[in-house]
Design a protein that fits this description.
alpha+beta; 79 residues; two-stranded parallel ribbon; single chain
Amino acid sequence: MHARVEIAAGVRGRLVEQLREHFPGAERAGFVVDERLTELWPLDLASAPDGPDIVPCPVPSGEAAKTREVLAQVQDRLL
């Protein structure tokens, strides 16, 4: 499993392009986001026909949610 973290304005709009550039040939990618943000900006991430399937992975807010259990839940969604 490979990872790349990007925190920036407009990242959703560049997601498929960035995935193609950094992970050519990838079949699936996770988009990990704070669950509160999904209320503000719904995760309507349509996969491009020639890009990987994009799996939204909302996680609980806050430092307390940065646990192995939450990581395991994200990994399970991607398997």
